[in-house]
Write a structure and sequence with these properties.
single chain; 182 residues; mainly alpha; Four Helix Bundle (Hemerythrin (Met), subunit A); 6 helices; 83% helix; elongated; binds fe (ii) ion
């Protein structure tokens, strides 16, 4: 069993790292779909499809939930119309991202099970939409939402919610590693 990496000390580093991971998973997903489109599904694609499926079903959804629980409330209560608008926009994006993901998930699940009933070109089109929205979303979070939240939640790490978030994710990761071994 490989050791779990220590969670970043700062909650915003942790959130930034989640964005880097989302971007890595999107690259992985694009490579997978392009290969399937060109050469057809092979058994080598199954574990990659499974891993990406697992990531967006669990980690990415948990990331959105973390933001809605720990970050956005401070923005919605800021009294600054631009900041409030951004927080509402970002929350709505999470709904759109979920809808986009549900366009991709069944095909990816099929690929993970070795079935290619889906049209790879259509799947690539769905990914284009998903990726574009995620990219805009992450840019708005890192350029506006996180800096604004940082100003208002300077003591987040000391209140325990940041540590709670990181600890929960570390435990989830540990559980995942254990189930992979079992
Ligand atoms: Fe978000
Ligand atoms: Fe985010």
């Amino acid at each position: 069993m490989k050791a779990n990496p220590s969670p970043p000390a700062n909650v915003f580093e942790f959130l930034d790292e989640s964005h880097r991971e989302i971007q890595r998973q999107l690259v992985q997903l694009r490579g997978l779909i392009e290969e399937i489109e060109t050469d057809g599904l092979s058994s080598a694609h199954k574990p990659i499809a499974q891993q990406v499926l697992h990531y967006f079903n669990r980690e990415a959804r948990q990331h959105h939930l973390d933001e809605e629980t720990h970050i956005f409330p401070a923005l919605l209560n800021s009294g600054d119309p631009d900041v409030v608008h951004a927080a509402r926009h970002l929350t709505q994006d999470h709904g759109w991202l979920e809808e986009n993901w549900l366009q991709i998930e069944p095909a990816l699940e099929a690929a993970a099970n070795g079935n290619q009933w889906f049209d790879a070109a259509e799947l690539r089109h769905a990914l284009n939409v998903f990726e574009a929205l995620y990219t805009d979303h992450i840019i708005l979070e890192e350029s506006l939402a996180y800096p604004e939240a940082k100003k208002r939640l300077g003591s987040l790490d000391n209140t325990g919610s940041g540590r709670e978030m990181a600890r929960r994710r570390a435990l989830a990761s540990q559980g995942q590693n254990n189930s992979e071994i079992a």
